[in-house]
Amino acid sequence: MNLHLHQIRLPLASFTLEIDATFDRPITGIFGPSGAGKTSLLDLVAGLRRPIAGAVELDNKILFDASRHLPSRLRRIGYVPQDLALFPHLNVRANLAYGCQRQASNNDLFTIDHVSEVMETTTRRFCACDSFRAAPAFIGRTDEQSRFKTEEATHSISAAHSRRISYPAHLRYTRCERIDRAL
Amino acid sequence: MTGEAWQIVFFTIKISALSTLLILPPGIAIAWLIARRDWPGKAVVETLVMLPLFVPPVATGLILLLLFGRNSPIGSVLNSFGIEIVFTWRAVIIACAVMSFPLLVRTAQTAFQEVNTRFEDIARTLGASEWRVFATISLPLALRGIVAGAVLAFARAMGEFGATTVVAGMIPHKTMTISLSIYQHVQLGQDAAALPLLLVSIAVVFVTVLCGQIISMRKRPR
User: Fold this and answer.
1) pTM, rounded to two decimals
2) Contact between residue A100 and residue A146 where contact means Cβ atoms under 8 Å apart
3) Record: contact A84-B119, CB cut-off 8 A
4) Contacting residues of A for B222, CB less than 8 Å apart
């Protein structure tokens, strides 16, 4: 995995986020104070925000530069947001299957014990803890089709719940990037 | 209530339902465009949509008469296909549709604006096309508001009077709605004959709006 953010400029509410960085480890953690632009950084990699200058390149494929902006749906980049990770009008199964192109196979995909028991639950009835319990399943789903993912939700899972979910080994952070307004 | 009165009641309900169905697709489309996209002339279209709320209904009726009359550009084309608009049930539907359009669009527009764009973004990262985002995320999440808007539009159509009189007249068995009939009875000094129609129209609108209230009171899924 090789992600280049080349001289990116993204105007935010109170400052312009400037990034010039390369991410080449399987996992990168990004930390910084609230409002430093962590989410904006993930957004522009996922194609949800459009910088005014610079280039985004993933594994030698240009996702964004002066002449092109590859739409999010074609980037195959999984994204687990900090909150609102679940579509409130869909049940758990439909939530998991949303990114799945071949509808027929989605029964085989989701038979993990602790997920299958809540599969037909409406996400609306979940308490906050429950929705965090279901959210990591997205990772399993998106992981399969994506080479790179931006991820914000799992840190919110309480200890009790996180023990019920087995994470793939590579989900432990291996490298941390610090991002400051001064960047 | 006489058979003729019942006929008028069912005709009015039918016309109101048809006009609401007619404005749903364009209403939802315009509401979505206003809520989610920026385009030149957006403010002008927003204002145009609102206009029937403020222009005197009789004036709106006159505009429709000028647009759809036999010698008008639209009317003469339709007439050459054998479709007559003015002073037929079609004119009643058009009058109701135009007069209730702003209520639907405004309500649906607010409903779309209340949907968190984050859900739409996440759907895009999961590979959804813009159409799929609309059909499976934006529309279902805004559905409650759209239904509320449709209920308002239906109720407004039930009471339409001003534009209808001008463009459709008050032709018994052809364009006579509850409001037109009540007006006619009162004009002829037959207040008592208007009473059953009055009660029925209040009952229909009460039940409709009550259903709308119940729908929008149910806990919001967000």
Assistant:
1) 0.79
2) no
3) yes
4) 88
